[in-house]
Structures are given as structure tokens and as C-alpha cells.
């Protein structure tokens, strides 16, 4: 099969990749095409924009977290039911983990045999853009840079001069531009863009962006480039092999403005292996969903909604009691923060949380951790057994304080800076700063389903014996 596909890559971060990706998706949809969006790397927030604009769940493809075979499988699973796939890159084209290419947009492009459209911010330069594009072409000739789009263009003359030098010096077609326009900037804060769960893109923004793309970018040529791929690389199916699952269990997923950091493939994997997913809101739900066998609380921004979370005492009390009764709960980052006794916000004000774990979590004045890590399980838990390994990504501004000296850590974490410990365990609860992609080691998802199933059986026995 030959799935039409393109990657929008940047010379560096903040060159306008997300804005251009959204505009191109809008223009493709206007032509009646079903567009499947993807995001390179571990980001949770940009995909919320892709999902809103495309009408299809955006998927993450991370060549450090995931193997080649898994990336091919996850991509093909969605690409085969779309007309074209649009992938937004991460950071600069060649930026990966340290000095290696794993995790980079370029590495992903080579794995998928996908043409790259390079986004160049030409604010305050023109002829120098030719040197920049030439360097990107020559750095790794196995990367197919099939075209260039210019951003922050000051005038038509600026565009024509810059386009000319790039095409003459690099033999790479310039496909169009976006003008310098501050109203096209997407809203940001301490973890990046503001997710659309909180603030959806308004129709006026989308209409303006679409009009600019239609006017200034050669969409017909972009479509032709997407179709000029040389087949799709072969790979074996690892995750979604034909194997129907019986005896479903029910997992409640926390989802609202405070908790919305989930890889859609993680949710699909849980469903594939036997979970029926039901959503609830820690901000607004007064009760947990009925007849649940487990809970999944993802990351997000609980620090921005601490008063509302603290005020929903009925839900917190029920969750606390269900934990005492053995309900399996898996919590990542923001979920960890919610399960502590207290959350201290950026202003130093503290709020009562669920209280599963002793101690508090406090927001810092600066980023506390950002990067890929390797995870080794130290103690059996609802996701893994001692000695199990996985890859993960950690990104947080908060830190734990006043936790007991005898706290039981689930994980030993390694990165290029050393070793530290993470993951709190209590009852059937695992809460960690580490964000896992279940396709990196699917046994973690299977073990969570198994833990929920065991809890359900115990509950049935309790019912049977009064």
C-alpha cells in the first residue's frame, strides 16, 4: 500500500509548525479529504489542536519511545482509513535525544519513508534562508526534503527574493508562505500551548488561517508530494494482532480541563485488551461511574484548577474509600498530584486533594524535569513486576515534599544525568511522574487489565458470599 503522507518539520522550535499544520489540514478538508493527523514526539497538547481541526484523533509517533515495527503499525492502522496523513514534527528537523537521531523528526521521516516539508521562519532574513535550507538538505541526504514553506514573511518582495535564492541554491521548491501576523499565534503558558479542552480554536481564527493558506500556499503541489512516496515499509504487527478479548472489565478515565494528557493509542490499547472505558470529571462529577474495576488518571493541569478539585469533596471521599477497598488506580503526573494530601499552587496557596499518599506536591518557579528516561521496576505493582523495563517521558514543574521516609518507590529511573526514583505505591495504586506509551511495552497495559480483572473477580466473590 502507498498511503499519501507528509511531515511538516521545522528548522527549530517555534517556527510555526503547529499553525501551518492546522492550516494545511483545514485546506485539505476543504477539498473533501479525510485527514489523519499525527504528532512526532511525546507532546500531549499540540495533538488536541490537530484533533479539533481534523475531526479525527491525533496520534503520537515517537521513534525513541517506540520501535520501528510499532511505529509502522500505529501509523498504518490509521492511515489506511484516511485519504492523507499529516505529521507535525518536533523541535528542529534533526533534534532527537542528545546527539543521536532517535526521537527526531528526521528519524521518523526515514522510518515512514515520508517526504518532508521544511518550515523556515524568515523573519529578519532573506538570502541567508538559502544557506539554512542547503545545510538541512546536506546534513542527511537520506531525508527527503521535498519542499519548503516560509513563515513570518514581511512582504511579497521579501517572499520572492527568499524563494528565488532557496530554489536556485538548493533546487528545493518553495511551496508558499504565511505572512507576519501576530494574530496567528496560539496561546501558551508554562507547559506549552493551552489545550483545546480548555480553549478551543474559534471559527474566526480558523477561517483566517484557511484563507491565508489557500491564498499563499500551493496545496495542489503538497497533495502531489504526499502521493509521490515509494510504497509503505513493511513491518510485523505487534500490538493489534487478531485476537478478540472476552470478559471485559470497566475502567474509568478522568477527563476534563484538569486531566487531558492521554495518548489516544494508550486508550485504544486498553480497549483492545478488554477494557470498556467510561469517563468522569474530577472537577464536576459527584460520583465515580458505577461498576468500575479500575481508574486511569492522566496528566494535565490540576495546579490551575486546584480550588475546584479541592471543593469536590464528595468525589474525593469516594475515590479515597474505593482505594482502601482495593480498586486499581493508575495515575500519571497530574494524576499523581491529585492523589497527594495537598497541592501547593504557584502562589503558595495549598489545597486538599484526595490524600491517598502522605505529603504534598508543590509547584516550582521553574521546570523540574524534561526528557526521556528508562524505567526499571523495583517492586511489583498493578502495571509491572520487579525487573520489568520500559521507556517513558517526564515533564513537570512540580515536586514532592514532606513524603514519609519509608515511602515505597515503584521505579528506578535512568537518564543521561544519572539515577533517581519515582512512582508511589499504596494498596492497588501506582502514581508516577513518568508518562508511559503502552505500545513501548504492551505488557504494562496487559498487567493493568489483569489487575482490574482480579479486582472484579474478588468483588464478585464478595457479592457471592455476602
From TrEMBL:
It is an enzyme of class 6 (ligase). One of its GO terms (molecular function) is cobyrinic acid a,c-diamide synthase activity. The record marks 435 as: Increases nucleophilicity of active site Cys. Pfam families: CbiA (PF01656), GATase_3 (PF07685). Residues 6-191 form the CobQ/CobB/MinD/ParA nucleotide binding domain. It comes from the Bacteria. Residues 250-440 form the CobB/CobQ-like glutamine amidotransferase domain. Pathway: Cofactor biosynthesis; adenosylcobalamin biosynthesis; cob(II)yrinate a,c-diamide from sirohydrochlorin (anaerobic route): step 10/10. Comprises of two domains. The C-terminal domain contains the binding site for glutamine and catalyzes the hydrolysis of this substrate to glutamate and ammonia. The N-terminal domain is anticipated to bind ATP and cobyrinate and catalyzes the ultimate synthesis of the diamide product. The ammonia produced via the glutaminase domain is probably translocated to the adjacent domain via a molecular tunnel, where it reacts with an activated intermediate. Catalyzes the ATP-dependent amidation of the two carboxylate groups at positions a and c of cobyrinate, using either L-glutamine or ammonia as the nitrogen source. This is Cobyrinate a,c-diamide synthase.
